[in-house]
From TrEMBL:
<dbReference type="Pfam" id="PF13692">
    <property type="entry name" value="Glyco_trans_1_4"/>
</dbReference>
<protein>
    <submittedName>
        <fullName>Glycosyltransferase family 1 protein</fullName>
        <ecNumber>2.4.-.-</ecNumber>
    </submittedName>
</protein>
<dbReference type="InterPro" id="IPR050194">
    <property type="entry name" value="Glycosyltransferase_grp1"/>
</dbReference>
<dbReference type="GO" id="GO:0016757">
    <property type="term" value="F:glycosyltransferase activity"/>
</dbReference>
<dbReference type="Pfam" id="PF13439">
    <property type="entry name" value="Glyco_transf_4"/>
</dbReference>
<keyword id="KW-0808">Transferase</keyword>
<feature type="domain" description="Glycosyltransferase subfamily 4-like N-terminal">
    <location>
        <begin position="39"/>
        <end position="207"/>
    </location>
</feature>
<dbReference type="InterPro" id="IPR028098">
    <property type="entry name" value="Glyco_trans_4-like_N"/>
</dbReference>
<keyword id="KW-0328">Glycosyltransferase</keyword>
Length: 415
């Protein structure tokens, strides 16, 4: 119904009690150095948060680097401000913003947001933090990536302490920092990070659904309906601890000779992994419904990473009805209940991960029971609930800044 039709329509009787509670609309500036069409956990989850904020009637200004594949109007429901971007070292398909403090000060001085939320701690994120502080705007941030942990895998381990120091300095200048799990929040608190809140991640249970399971796709992998298919989804890179997947598959293969291994994703370790398990299926990077079909066609999801702050692939696998074998860290550590929806390794050794994989994929009945439990877990992880928590942190930061400003004005008037 268009506006004119709506105005001309006959008034309808309604009960005020049935109307939704009024929502306080805010002007939000969201700063991120990665966003779709880039494919990674930060990009995809930030897109869901932005969409949900818009649905809740907030005015969202999205500030991010311009991407070579950017299409005009891709985010028509938000005010996009595109900055210059450069390739990220070691991740050439990703972009990082360049220092932009002056431009952001000018932008926000003319159109002042109620709060600035910074999703990434790169050059653009640092510029946004400085600009917001210059204008005395409340700032919230996400802690999303264990850069200091990744350093061990990219020959910059000597700089891990300096990187951690930078991250602590960055987040402690914010009014609030959101950690994706309670475990990460506690670790950050022990490292001197302040004003921490736990805000998890949701999952799209309509897209990631066991109903998408495809016997045709499984047949392309050489697997029958009841054969074991285990797989990994994500970047094929050293920090993901992928040799543990190779070891787990070899152990499963000895137990179940018809087992299959599927790698979904790409990265610098592809050639090495192909040499180690030439019989595995490397299907490359997938997205959208195609990715969801690949998840749902797996039986066991092998996730050996110890460097995640969350790991969106864990929730996507759970929603797809995959039994999950993982370490007790990040999302898996909080969402996997061994014996109910997957199995957690007893310690951080490769042997423990292999043992967890053997338990998870033991037989058809076990896989089906754990997969059903995985789906039940995912159905509790709605994005609406996550963004409600996100809103609460933003409102708290705005209120605290308003109180500090009022107290400052009071002191000035009394001096």
């Amino acid at each position: 119904m268009n506006t004119a039709t709506a105005l001309a329509a006959e008034p309808q009787d309604f009960d005020v009690k049935e109307l939704p509670a009024p929502r306080h609309s805010r002007r939000l500036a969201v700063v991120t150095e990665t966003y779709p069409p880039e494919v990674n956990g930060v990009a995809m989850s930030m897109a869901r948060v932005v969409d949900e904020l818009h649905r809740r009637n907030h005015d969202v200004q999205l500030i991010r680097p311009r991407q070579p594949t950017h299409a005009s109007g891709a985010n028509a429901h938000v005010d996009e401000v595109l900055t210059r971007g450069l390739p990220v070292p070691l991740y050439p398909n990703l972009r990082m913003g360049v220092p932009s403090k002056r431009a952001l000060v000018q932008l926000w001085a003319k159109h002042r947001p109620d709060v600035v939320h910074i999703a990434t701690e790169g050059p653009l994120g640092w510029s946004a933090l400085q600009a917001a502080q210059h204008l005395e705007l409340p700032v919230t941030s996400d802690y999303r990536t264990n850069f200091h942990a990744y350093g061990r895998h990219y020959k910059v381990g000597l700089f891990s302490k300096a990187i951690l120091g930078y991250l602590r300095k960055f987040h402690n200048r914010c009014d609030a920092t959101m950690a994706p799990t309670e475990h990460i929040r506690r670790l950050l608190a022990d490292q001197g990070f302040e004003r921490l809140h736990t805000v998890g991640r949701g999952v799209d249970t309509q897209r990631y659904d066991p109903a998408r399971r495809s016997d045709l796709l499984r047949g392309e992998w050489g697997a029958g309906p009841d054969d074991l298919v285990c797989g990994y989804v994500g970047r094929l890179a050293p920090e993901k601890n992928l040799l543990a997947v190779v070891a787990a598959f070899r152990a499963l293969l000895r137990q179940q000779p018809r087992a299959r291994l599927v790698w979904v994703g790409d990265g610098p370790m592809r050639a090495e992994l192909l040499a180690r398990v030439p019989e595995a299926h490397f299907v490359g990077q997938r997205s959208g419904d195609d990715l969801a079909t690949h998840y749902a066609s797996l039986d066991v999801f092998l996730f050996p990473s110890l460097t995640e702050t969350f790991g969106n692939v864990t929730t996507e696998a759970l929603a797809s009805g995959c039994a999950v074998a993982a370490f007790r860290s990040a999302a898996a550590g909080e969402l996997i209940d061994s014996g109910l929806n997957g199995v957690l390794a007893q310690d951080e050794s490769e042997a423990a991960f292999v043992a967890a994989a053997l338990q998870t994929g033991h037989d058809l009945a076990t896989r089906r029971r754990l997969g059903a439990g995985a789906r039940r877990t995912a159905l509790r992880l709605s994005w609406a609930e996550i963004v409600s928590q996100f809103e609460t942190v933003l409102e708290d930061a705005i209120t605290r800044r308003e109180i500090r400003s009022a107290l400052g004005q009071l002191r000035l008037s009394q001096s």
